[in-house]
Specification:
single chain, alpha+beta, nine-stranded mixed β-sheet, six-stranded mixed β-sheet, 8 helices, globular
Length: 296
């Protein structure tokens, strides 16, 4: 049997969560929105999580899930019958996403191509799966390179783990039963290079990415505070620009600058049709953590 990518320590006992189990619930999360402080061991190809200190824990990180998380709903009695349709031979997968910060305090987001079967048209930081033989940072940097073409010299960046997100796809039960279940580890990687220097070296992979942009703290704050648990419409603050400049890939392999309405970035998952362009809920969580790191 394959090694568990996400391992829980519950009352000192190791436990591998099954695909259908909510990791947040297993770690004692209550009915609130969180986040919940979680003790973490960052191992090669594996994440060890506990709600209490344990030997080998290297940090404590906030763990959160969206209020519409399908695994919370599947824990409820009236939906357990539907849970029987979920995979029984799979556990929870591990993903790593890189919040790349330039020296002038902007962060890189990429838009997933609309031909992908998983989360098309979603604005996210570069990231993906970590191999069993990879350190978590190495896996994140590899994904950064595979998606954006950026390779960071080891002596020109620093990094710190930001937080953990319990992710499902589809993200809502109304869109179908979950096919994917991940714990996403967000890593903040701070480059010594400016946005202009980094952008000059970006070569996006068109099989994964069809656009990219850099967010500064002001727009990021507006995006991050759009709550995905609310159904009410929201209005742009007057001080926000009506649009933000992105770079979009063209079919002939070229790229063009494009003004994207900021309102697109403020769409919420509960009020947006499946597959429609928006910022992912986990990315909004990561942006909030980034802003806290900046002291905003």
């Amino acid at each position: 049997m394959a090694a568990s990518r996400v391992l829980l320590l519950l009352s000192g006992r190791p436990m591998s969560p099954s695909f259908a189990q909510s990791v947040c619930r297993l770690l004692g999360a209550g009915p609130g929105l969180g986040p919940w402080p979680t003790h973490c061991g960052l191992k090669q190809g594996q994440l060890v999580l506990s709600n209490g200190p344990f030997p080998g824990a290297s940090t404590t990180l906030p763990l959160q899930r969206p209020p519409f998380c399908p695994f919370v709903a599947l824990d409820q009695q009236q939906l357990r019958a539907r849970g029987a349709e979920l995979p029984t031979n799979r556990g929870v997968d591990l993903g790593v996403a890189v919040i790349l910060q330039s020296s002038d305090q902007t962060v890189l987001l990429t838009r997933r191509t609309n031909t992908l079967s998983l989360s098309p048209n979603l604005w996210v930081p570069p990231g993906g799966h970590v191999e069993l033989d990879e350190e978590l940072l190495d896996g994140g940097l590899r994904e950064l390179w595979e998606e954006s073409g950026l390779q960071l010299p080891q002596d020109q960046f620093s990094w710190v783990p930001l937080g953990l997100w319990e992710s499902a796809y589809p993200p809502r039960l109304s869109w179908g039963l979950p096919k994917y279940h991940h714990i996403i580890l967000y890593l903040l990687v701070v480059s010594q290079e400016s946005q202009q220097q980094l952008q000059g070296r970006i070569q996006p992979n068109p099989n994964e990415v069809n656009a990219f942009m850099w967010l500064g703290p002001d727009v990021a704050a507006a995006v991050a505070t759009t709550e995905d648990g609310t159904e009410t419409s929201r209005h742009l603050p007057q001080e926000l620009p009506p649009s933000i400049l992105i770079v979009e890939l063209e079919e002939d392999g070229g790229a063009r600058p494009l003004a994207l309405p900021v309102s697109t970035l403020l769409r919420t998952t509960p009020t947006t049709a499946e597959g429609k362009e928006r910022v992912s809920s986990g990315t909004k969580f990561a942006l909030r953590l980034w802003l806290q790191h900046l002291g905003r």
